[in-house]
Design brief:
The complex is a heterotrimer of chains A (306), B (430) and C (279). Chain A has 14 helices and no strands. With 306 residues, chain A is mostly helical. Chain B folds into two domains: 187 residues, Periplasmic binding protein-like II (D-Maltodextrin-Binding Protein, domain 2); 200 residues, 3-Layer(aba) Sandwich (D-Maltodextrin-Binding Protein, domain 2), CATH 3.40.190.10. The longest helix of chain B is centred in the C-terminal third of the chain and has 20 residues. Chain B starts with a helix and ends with a helix. By secondary structure, chain C is an all-alpha fold. Chain C has two domains: 64 residues, no CATH class; 208 residues, MetI-like fold. In chain C, 72% of the residues lie in helices and 0% in strands. Chain C is built from 14 helices and no strands. The longest helix of chain C is centred in the last third of the chain and has 35 residues. Classes of the chains: A mainly alpha (306), B alpha/beta (430), C mainly alpha (279). Chains in contact: A-B, A-C, B-C. The interface between B and C is large, with 32 and 41 residues. Chain C: It is a multi-pass membrane protein.
Chain lengths: 306, 430, 279
Amino acid sequence: MDLTKKQTRLKRWEGWKSSSLAFQAQPFYFLLPAIILLGLFLFLPALLTIYYAFTDYYLLTPDQRQFVGLRNFTQIFGDPVFLRSLQNITIFVVGIIIFQVGMSLGLALLINKQRRGNIFLKVAFFSPVVMSLVVISVLWLYLLNPTDGLVNSMLQAVGINAQPFLTSPNQAIYAIILVSVWQGAGYQMLIFLAGLQNIPGDVYEAARIDGAGKWKSFLHVTIPLLRPTTTLIVFTTLIAAFKLIIQPMIMTQGGPLNSTMTPIYYIYQTGFTDRLVGYSSAMTVVFGLLIVIVTFVQRRFAKEDL
Amino acid sequence: MKLRVLVAGMVSTALLLSACGNEAESDGGDNEISLWVQTSSESPEGQAMQGSVEKFNEQFKGTYTANIEFIPRGGGGGGYEDKVNAAVSTGTLPDVLTLDGPNTAAYAESEIIAPLDGVISNTEDLLPSIVEQGTYEDEMYAVGYSESSVGIYYNKEMLEQAGVDLETLPTVDEPWTWDEFTQLSEKLTDYYEVPAIDMGLNDNSEWLMYAFSPFLWSQGGEITSEDGRQAETVFNSEANMKAMSFLQHMLNNDYTTISPAENGFETGQYPMKMSGSWTMEQLDTNYQDIDYDIMPYPVSPDTGELVTPTGSWQYAMSTATENEEGAGELIDFLTSTEAVVDISLANSVLPSRYSAIEEIEDDVSPQMNTLIEQNEASGKARPVLPEYPQITRSFQQTISGLPYYEDQAGLQELLDEKAKEMQTSLERRE
Amino acid sequence: MKNVKKLVEYVLLTLLAFFFIFPLLWMVSSSMKSEESIYQDLNSVQALLPSFQITEWLSTYTELFSRFDIGTYLFNSVFYALLVTAGAIVVNAMAGYAFAKFHFKGKNIMFSLLLAMLIIPVETIIITQFTIIHNLGLVDNRLAVIIPLIANAFFIYLFRNFFIAVPDSVIESAKMEGAGHWTIFWRIMLPMSKPAVATVGTLAFIGSWNDYIWPLMILTDSDKYPLQVAITSINATEPVFINQVMAILTISTIPLIIVYIVAQKYLLQGLSSSGSGQK
């Protein structure tokens, strides 16, 4: 772009700016796009969801929407599928917190040690992270196929019986936990690693002088000093885990026997497939509140760390 | 500065591209009739539709012009239906649209589609299953332009090798009972040491409702009461228990499996496969080594009544049309014997009219004729319910849950639980 | 003794690494052989190796490209992701700038409201978001894939923190030279906060690339599908060939590998600050 053009444009700007009204309005201009977009796609939907929750909004007849009071809410608590989904998500969240956080901490500790070939390990552990949830879901659907999946043929090679995995109501949710841990652990490993490397070496030195062994210094130095990192990881993992939908949607469609049905997936199905926007909104409100409460409780516990 | 130019460039491209996607939906001219179909224009089905529309335009030259728009279904199956949903709230429905059988009730109840009183000529020529599927509260709303059916495919060589005399196999007139079918399965499973039949039990989709509900009907069972309000005591009835026991027995003895090997029948591993007419096309193009034939569904030993799956996409008139006469003419034309024959031959599907069956009988394979014959004799449509999505989901879970309940008590528990689930769904909007 | 211990350690580590990497190996190698040999190789090490016939390596990809319009899906994904990235950087940086360097009425309330928005679990309100897109008449429109992903409370917060660190004196002296806020924003603030731009850009790109449920809901025309939706559609289009499925999975992963290699550092930054962010 040539200079004169640039200058005239700059001048125009300056002229506008110096008129005092425009100057007052400037923060508003800077905020406007974000306000419009957040309002339209976050704030408004959140409010509308609450409103719809008290109506019988049916997707095919939006104009005949009527206020139905608390009907949707009373129905929710008699809905066996929704209750089951709450149970499933609890198992999932607890499983993820224990195994994913544990696994990523373990991996970080392994890698933190000086050794040859560490970079290879790091790449291996991190590799699942680069795949999208859709990709890993489709991939593991084939890997975990009970009849001709690679995992079962590997198990059989070491003398373990073939497992039904995703086709069993007793195993499916755990298979999904396994896949999710496998996918996510590498990312948090890096964060833990950064936390570990921030611990100054002389702290360990001091502990050694005090006569602490390897295990003791891990317990009394590493763990306490990693607390902020751990809190951060637990915090982000927990909220994300509550929103599980893609893996069951692609791998099990919520089955067998609702054993992998999750709240968000059920909300999606009732609102979109069954067209019951009102009912689905009521579940959204209940489940959304639940997440908000968990967030607050957790934040209270973690206050000192964050 | 570069970034700014880039952004400006991309935003304008986005606007341009989105503008392209939004051409006028229907221009509402008196002579123009807009038509939405769910297939792609390249598919044999789409091409047959295109052909029929051209014939219509030829015949009604000067009076009506039909414009066909292809909106292929996405992989999830929902794409086309979502577009219809969207058009409902924005008031941009076409004059005529296609819809899947199970959607008839929801669309009719929501007044998306209009009744077709007196629009369709020669309704007694339509197969009963087609009428059943398109009827909601005693009025006809939609007409299927083809039919579908499911049969038991079997590998002739494999059966013979296992010592089965092919001459003794059942026919549509004399179908086998579940017991006889179980005996055959046992023989084959013992001989080949693999499940005798792939029943598609790994397919957690509409297939389960479509293919497995006829077993209940054969025993005299139902999914919901006739008025569609009651599932408890109906779905967990004794008749349904019996039908499900047959399937449970097949599963528990490994005569079939919930995780069949991929293409097990097509590659000669499994001797039998329960599937629809589409498998014929696949066998004929990709797996020509398999010498196969088709036998009809097994039936309840108590009733001996053959009941088989049906279902298809249909044409219906939207309530938004301002040209009811033209839209009606188009639907009548597209479901006429000629159009039905065209699409059956092009897409290797079953015809939806008796007259069309007569016309193509000699042109299709004996296997296809078995399915046509079976369909004509015993086809039954799935329930016509506004709550269909929920009901079919509970049904799917019942079937895929079967292997985890080993005895009668467990089975009863499963049916009770799912009946209750269906009942809550039915009562949700009352 | 020490050597034995070391050996055991390496064996265990190798096993662990194998657990993490074998699915990826299987995915890529299965995309480079015939469907038949995928099943034949299941019981041997060959499962994790591509076909021994080098000529077969690309044939799956050729078949896939001839059956499906992969080029369109790839273009769509790149197009959506780039627009979301550019939009997210500009829109959120602008808002972050306003919060960092302007004094206006109601700023604190608005900022608290913004932080409160971080708590709304976005995934739960997709149905209502859909009804809004519905009412805007944007169903099956490319814009609908992009615009809901642009504004992001967390990104605004990230930019604000970065901009606050820019000393006021820099802005003052620019003002002295006659620059307006717009100029300051483009010429000074954005260039000075490259790490924030990179972090937001990377996160936005990955977020858009991996987005699945939303495009699945609002797009009906398969010509507009991004890769993620195309994957499930290909995996459901009969006949399904497993090697072709693995090929599309591989294709959709490669761009992300590149993004992660280039931007690894910024990703970590983004996440670490996300936690400390919400005091």
